[in-house]
Write a structure and sequence with these properties.
The chain has five helices and two strands. By secondary structure, the protein is mostly helical. The chain has a two-stranded antiparallel sheet with strand order 1-2.
Length: 126
């Protein structure tokens, strides 16, 4: 947390000092460079959080598919018979999985409402 705060101070200090001591903007290049440093703080934050925070690292790895599971994968467990079943725990859910599941369900609903003969097979997952 101290590293994030120090990065913020280093990035915003030139802008604050420039605003205080050069109020009449006699050196516009200094103001532009100080503003770029302040924008750099916003650009550096995601990388700093990804490196320094374990929860952010885990979320980034899931988002970028670096882990075992990607965004569109579901949690799978095996039952006592050895066959795979879908897990209904919310531990692996993300917004992307919810959107994906919603679009799949909407396609099933549209298929049923269109009177498709294979609708029962689609709904039952066959």
């Amino acid at each position: 947390m101290l590293i994030i705060f120090c990065t913020f101070m280093i990035c915003f200090l030139p802008l604050m000092v420039t605003n205080v001591f050069d109020d009449d903007t006699s050196y516009p290049v200094v103001h532009v460079l100080a503003s770029v440093f302040s924008y750099a703080s916003s650009c550096l934050n995601p990388f700093l959080y990804a490196v320094l925070n374990r929860q952010y690292r885990h979320a980034y790895s899931k988002l970028l598919c670096w882990g075992r599971k990607g965004i569109f994968t579901t949690n799978r467990n095996t039952n006592s018979a050895g066959s795979q079943t879908n897990s209904h725990s919310n531990s692996g859910k993300t917004v992307a999985t919810d959107v994906y599941q919603y679009t799949v369900l909407m396609k099933k609903v549209q298929t049923v409402s269109n009177g498709d003969s294979d609708a029962s097979k689609l709904i039952n997952g066959q």
